[in-house]
Amino acid sequence: MTDEAAAFVPGHLTGFFSAHPDDDPAIAGSRGAGVTLSHGVDVRVEPGARVGGSPASITLNDECVAVDAVAGVRDALDAADAAVVAETPLPLGAGFGVSGALALGVAYGINAVYCRRRTENELVAIAHRAEVEAGTGLGDVVAQARGGVPIRLDPGGPGHGRLDAVPAAPRVEYVTFGSVSTEAVLSGDTTRLTAAGERALASLREDPTPPRLVALSRQFAREAGLLTDRVAEVVAAVRREGGDAAMAMLGDTTFAFGTDLSEAGYDPEVCAVHPGGATLREPDR
Asked: What is the pTM of this model?
């Protein structure tokens, strides 16, 4: 056992998706496409201890939080006492895959700290399963493990889902207004959004470019009935200026490539596509 381990997991914006539930959470997941971000989650894992029968804490940006997917990872790796300290510039619940990033980063960290000797695919599968069981995501983990601009061709974790990617690394801008309940959407009737997501995926595979990804994502949000009023206002403003933008799934968040949000008069957060997936790094001393 080591003193601590640290990992970085990129954020992930989903542009469109189709939901594919299954009794086996390793097989359940989504098909679709999105973009991984250089804005991500730094996770540090340390051996902890139970206090009064409660599991070790999860701290995100200096605040204690409860993240069911992280609890699932700790249970799967028999490390219920693992203490987790995470930092991110990304808001939780706003469509950036923060819960998936926490689950994956904790899996990497526990594996190193507790000498669990799991392979990368095994750790990704554990984090994916935990996120699906928690109801907080269907495809973020596998995308965050890959990096780039991933296209999820099949649902499920490693061994089940195939991945491809748009071969590009555009500048990314985003503006966020708040959260949308992923659990509420995924637990409801997903027939409409799944049909829209399947159409979008087929179209992107014919023209795998960043502009096409944004256009299909914009169309998906409207067809799936997920577009929020505030995102709709931003998208309309961007298109009036000759650009394009879309909604991040699932959050009250607008994203665009290049400078389209800036040129429409917004003051967006700016980052890059993260070319690689989640990775361990040297802990800060």
From this structure: 0.94
